[in-house]
Amino acid sequence: MALFALCLWPVIALVIAARVPRPAALVWMVLIPYMFLPEAYAINLPGLPPLEKGTVIAGSLLLAFALFAPPERGYSRTPATRTPPETGRPWLRRLLWACIVTMALGAALTVRQNTDPIVLIDRTIPGTGPRDLISFSLQTLVMLTPFFLAVRYLRTAEDRQTLLRACVTAGLIYSLFMLVELRLSPQFHNWLYGFHQHSFLQHVRDGYRPKVFLDHGLQVGFFMLTSLLAALALWKEARKPHWIFAALWLGLILLLSRNLGATMIAVMVSGLMLLNIASLTRITVIGVCVILLAYPTLRVSPLSPVDPALQLASTISEDR
């Protein structure tokens, strides 16, 4: 069933690309397979990235947009009804190219430093070589494909509204699956594809932590966090009550899903969004970026508060 789903998705993606306007097609061609295709299943291909969820998503995007490129649906017929594309953000493309160069360099260094084989009791794992460098580079391109297409096709405020609405809709759909797994345990992936995508024991937390069709329950928590923040952003923009009701529902499901980290982030970020203080938001974002960039260095230095953090976590749950 897992192989059938991976092979079926490109066909569905072509149908979506042929019938749906370009921005919405791009968004749903990423969200739908991310939400429902199998995890922990891959077919190894010689010299190529493994055929799994990520490569199927990227390959389907490239195929669909290559076949249905001209004309850009939704742009040519009624230009007066659309916001003009924003062209003053060249730093986005430079950032993507910087990411590609950095990740390609990292892949080259990884291959260079792991050429020695690893000898185990029953088998030998060969060292990395030029073929692995090609595979790693292709995996980098696979991962960045949706971002390049987003820079190209999600250019206007209207397109970003489409993205936010799709995130909220996807979160509401997933919340129904999560309710079932909260009651019956995380089983949807096992029921449909015949195996669990991750350790079942990690999803028993004084009840059950849903994982639906994602790799782990933590990913489900951050997916719901994204949907919650999208609903709040839409409510701030339009002040329509259905968006705040959606945000309240998504927040409740996130709380029930036993994702402590995602819930804490939701509380803090939601507070920032509702306060609507630009300077405070800017300082917080810069602070988070600095912490993320400095963490690898801090983690191996005595400046990192590892022991206090572990003690704090143990007061919440020894299992965590």
Task: List its salient traits.
320 residues, mainly alpha, 1% strand
Count of alpha and pi helical runs: 12
Number of strands: 2
Q: Separation of termini?
A: 33 Å
Give the averaged pLDDT, no decimals: 85
Strand order of the largest sheet: 1-2
Q: Provide the β-strand percentage band.
A: under 5%
Q: Mind telling me the C-alpha Rg?
A: 22 Å
Order of helices and strands: HHHHEEHHHHHHHH
Largest sheet: 2 strands, antiparallel
Q: Tell me the structural class.
A: mainly alpha
How much helicity do the residues have?
Answer: 55-70%
Poorly predicted segments: 70-80
3D shape: globular
Please, could you describe this protein's structure?
The chain is an all-alpha fold and 320 residues long. 68% of the residues lie in helices and 1% in strands. It is built from 12 helices and 2 strands; from the N terminus they run ααααββαααααααα. Strands 1-2 form a two-stranded antiparallel sheet. Helix 2 packs parallel to helix 6 and helix 3 (53-67) crosses helix 5.
How are the SSEs placed, and which strands pair?
Layout: H1 2-19, H2 22-36, H3 53-67, H4 90-112, E1 118-119, E2 124-125, H5 130-153, H6 157-184, H7 188-193, H8 217-238, H9 241-256, H10 260-275, H11 278-299, H12 306-316
Antiparallel strand pairs: 1-2
